[in-house]
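Worked example

This section walks through a single chain of length 293. The input is the sequence exactly as stored; nothing has been trimmed or padded.
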Amino acid sequence: MFFVEARYHRNPGKVPQQIRYISHREERLQGGERRELFGIGDRYKALRGDEKAVERAFAEDTRGLPRPAYFRFILTVDNRASERFARLDGTATERAIRDAVQKTFRGAARDVQGVFAIHQHGGHDRPAHPHVHALLSPRLQNGAAIHVSPRAIERVKERWEREVLRGLERQERRLPRREPQRELVPLTTLRQRGFKARQAVLRFEQHPARPRRLGPLTLAFLRSRPSRRAGKLAGRSADAALGLLDRVMEISRDPERVARRVSLRLLSNALPGPMRNALWLARNVASFGLRQR
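Given that input, the structure is written out below as tokens.
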């Protein structure tokens, strides 16, 4: 079961002593290392754990209050959560508890401000239990005097337990997963296979190059408009070659029509000029009549 203790006093002279207590180690523990002071609220967060600056901020908040109240919270975890925290390193534990403290006071006691320190050790002949010491300012963030009712303390307790378990689960998911080691099965002796001679690789014999014939697709491409334009741009020889290709294609497609056209051209060249004109006129009229039908 999680434990949350809330006490208050009205003596401003005890504040510096309490700040030094929560930022140093407890009694009977050697070393004298300091713990980092974390701020609750934007004003105390900006102090970045400066102990002297925190004392001055508490003194400034005390001015103008006839009977200031200084609330001190102690937030702990149960044995089961402590065992789960023991599997994490100190940085992960501090991150999870720090986020839980911030979310707890922001959700259950809004507008309070102050400082807190995280203790991850135990005491003399006492197992380690992560816990938090928090000291709240006598003024809220909006400047009003602080007042924490028993109902608000109960909300802090409920929210503290919920946020700690969420942060703990979040840090546990980041731990590397260790798969149980499987027993290795001894390998049996493999049956030796008979040696097979390699087959001779057949070499690829290169045949002499054969002349390739032009297919219908190639001829159709050469007779298209882009290729004819390219032929005119290339010169008279290329244009004449493409023209000859047109005649060859026409002969292969309709030889009778080509024969009639050639015979008519030869006949017209043999006739005099007036008769040649009359012959071509009769041919054009006949072709026009066939189109009209």
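What to look for: The mean pLDDT is 78.
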